[in-house]
Amino acid sequence: MAKLLSCVLGPRLYKIYRERDSERGSSVVPEAPTSVSSPPSSSWDTYYQPRALEKHADSILALASVFWSISYYSSPFAFFYLYRKGYLSLSKVVPFSHYAGTLLLLLAGVACLRGIGRWTNPQYRQFITILEATHRNQSSENKRQLSNYNFDFRSWPVDFHWEEPSSRKESRGGPSRRGVALLRPEPLHRGTADTLLNRVKKLPCQITSYLVAHTLGRRMLYPGSVYLLQKALMPVLLQGQARLVEECNGRRAKLLACDGNEIDTMFVDRRGTAEPQGQKLVICCEGNAGFYEVGCVSTPLEAGYSVLGWNHPGFAGSTGVPFPQNEANAMDVVVQFAIHRLGFQPQDIVIYAWSIGGFTATWAAMSYPDVSAVILDASFDDLVPLALKVMPDSWRGLVTRTVRQHLNLNNAEQLCRYQGPVLLIRRTKDEIITTTVPEDIMSNRGNDLLLKLLQHRYPCVMAEEGLWVVRQWLEASSQLEEASVYSQWEVDEDWCLSVLRSYQAEHGPDFPWSVGEDMSADGRRQLALFLARKHLHNFEATHCTPLLAQNFQMPWHL
């Protein structure tokens, strides 16, 4: 009976991965040597074959889940309609509650039938035995056997806790349960006295901003967190995960962030290969509808690097909602996992982000200044201009206030706090982060990210002449046009390198630099063009085109 109850309450099993010889040797995530004996590994086919009873019961419960999700999103309109029709009276609500209770009992019966179907299936019984053994004792052998299964990630045991590093237990400066530190936006109206009357006046606007951010705003900004979209993508996500596990020997892990969210990660270790780049770990930060199963992790994987992918809070196996604070909390535990469990030094870690992932990438660079490099692909400087682009002009004040208070993705501000090498990749046909049309390459917010970075690091070089010539270079949308602008100003790269190296040797590497302060206008123009070309590469593609492995390069540094 205990096993039957476990089958009723157990998670849904999706796939049984093929046994790999490399699994028998060692586990990527080291654990205690003790293990609980469990049934031998499965030799069945990679696809889990549910019995008819389980299969049909799963279909009914999945359909009920979809209907519940649709009802949840449409509930405000439904309540308004029912109120107008007079259906919210007590005489109408009581019978409806009886129907709802009956439906819940029927669904509970379906769940019990599904449990019976699982109980009659030896594949599922073996799986549930291994899962229960792993929850009792997370030994390396138990976790190795559990990794052969792909199932509902909510039942996966936690592999790494945000407080696990001993340095954090002893330090008071680390993150609290409220979350890691973020840069806070400046007040919209400086110098205004923060009196009780002013607070009361602002209250309606603050309530409206909160409601917009937590309903429409968050789902527009992170559509990948919408359950219906995830449900539609489930087959593709399962295929992508199977590819990472079976072909790349990937290892899945659950990380517990300081806010209580559980973060779904996948690690591919290339340190044992002959390729030298395998010693470097690339932490990948996905876009607003991206998942590590089918996202930008494929680019550094093809290039031969070790890779750690993770899903945003609320995406696939990760819990929570993707607000900036939760995003930063998730990124923090991912970096800690890479350092303290996977054994990579910060100097061997590269942060790579695509699109909106630039926020967590720049936060990690700001918070972990010793990381090796940052690569931002198709990213932007600030969310406000892009939010204003898609909303009515009459909503400008509300949109700006909502973004600044609740959805403040201030990538450029965070990136300027980082001292290490940076590479920006600009899509020349980007239709997402341009504020006008894709053909208007000067409206690409990647340009603003570059300009803000260079103006912070080299303020004297990026004075009037330097700023003007870099803008001229940014107008080029092809390699031929780029080369034409570059040759027009006769940039002497050897001279530029010697100037920068001499300054670094005399004043040290910390930015901002005052190089170019006593330089001629022509010299500043040459330096500005040289630095712009080293910090930004063009990629002739649209926003969602996968980056080719040959375009994935480490940033330039002196």
Can you describe what's shown?
InterPro entries: AB_hydrolase_1, AB_hydrolase_fold, ABHD16_N. This is Phosphatidylserine lipase ABHD16A. With 558 residues, the protein is an alpha/beta fold. The protein folds into 3 domains: 1-17 and 46-161, no CATH class; 201-420, Alpha/Beta hydrolase fold, catalytic domain (Rossmann fold), CATH 3.40.50.1820; 441-557, no CATH class. The chain is 48% helix and 9% strand. It is built from 20 helices and 11 strands. It has helices spanning 2-9, 22-25, 52-85, 90-119, 122-136, 140-146, 166-170, 196-221, 227-246, 298-302, 324-340, 358-367, 383-390, 396-406, 411-415, 445-457, 464-474, 479-488, 493-507, 521-535, and strands at 13-16, 149-151, 160-161, 251-256, 262-268, 281-285, 306-310, 349-354, 373-377, 422-427, 536-539. The strands form 2 sheets. A 9-stranded mixed beta sheet has the order 3-4-5-7-6-8-9-10-11. It has a two-stranded antiparallel ribbon with strand order 1-2. Strand 6 (281-285), helix 10 and strand 7 (306-310) form a beta-alpha-beta unit. Helix 1 crosses helix 4 and helix 17 (464-474) packs across helix 20. It is globular and about 85 Å long.
